Amino acid sequence: MTMIKPISIALALLAFSTAAHAQNTSGQGSGGVVTGAAQDAATGKTASVTGTSAADASSGTNVTAGAAASHGSSAYAEMYNQAIGDYNSHNYNAAAKELRSVVKKAPNEINARLMLSNIYLSQKNYADALPQLEAAVKQGANDPATRDNLGEVYLQQNRPADALAQFKAVLARTPKDETAAQGLALALSQTGNSGDALAALQKLAADKPSVANYENLAGALQKAGKNADAAQAFQRAAALAPTNPDLPFYAGESYAQSGSNDKAIVALTQALALKTQYQFPAHMLLAQIYSGSGVRDKAIEQLKAAALVQPSDPTTWFNLGVLQQQAGQTEDAKQDFGKVVALKPTDAGMLKQAQQSLAALQATPGK
Fold first, then answer.
1. pLDDT digits over 108-124, tens only?
2. Cα-Cα-Cα-Cα dihedral sign, residues 173, 175, 180, 186
3. Domains of the chain, each with CATH number or no CATH
4. What is the pTM for the complete model shown?
5. How far is CA 164 from CA 14, 48, 154, 195, 314, in A?
């Protein structure tokens, strides 16, 4: 069975920094500011932060004006500062509790919503991340990372049409946004536009060659039944990550599905040499290819190797018994069929045939 690779996209968790102020410039006492500029952790792009007095700790640049002070609540400011401290110290449960109180008292505090959504995203709690991201975007957080995350959450919540709108909005502003391009392809696929999804992935792989983009393209090609093209995409991914042991396996499997057995053998042999996690299916697929090509000795060799990996699999022993019986290796065939019977496979037909073959071999004089 072909292992179709699903399209995947990466969430861009936002980073926050803070610069505490003991006294604001108008002499109103402590607690005047204290959130950080939301940034895309991967790119360092500063997000749109509205209604928040903040400083980017890496640059010292002040961003907009006075949220905590404008609310006139030192308790709120202290809670906000505590939440930021807990967030930056990775004490996320405490930070989430504090941030929920902050957004309840100050619903327009975008950074608080973004930090809270970050915590939920890290916990894969998409249902609770969703309202925070929706509110942040509605209130003006229009940066690509936030909208990419909102699009991904929509996908997780089975709302591909809404996700599509978010990714299109990002790409309208930043056409080279890789996460949005990946999300667009997945959203198109989930809305039934498989042709457009494939075209989007082909464009993305051409514009930004990477292992992930080639893998996503290969998965879409597999799904479209274009196994030869999928194999080539996996090979391109493997060329970018030559020590990755699983990419050659995917390529070999796709080559086999397309009937390109010689290329499949090369790729699968490479995967085994690199110690792919798919040792058993690689050996079994090679055995199938060799057996179908009439190269029985190599098929037997691969089945023996597969049996070492998964000795409790009755199918391996049954196939090995059939081939060794055909090769005149009677004693080995007896042992193989005996193991099938001992393993008691749920396939009643296999069990019956193994029992009959074993009985016939045992009853044959001189065998």
1. 889 899 999 999 999 99
2. positive
3. 9-178 (1.25.40.10), 312-367 (no CATH)
4. 0.70
5. 21, 21, 9, 15, 47
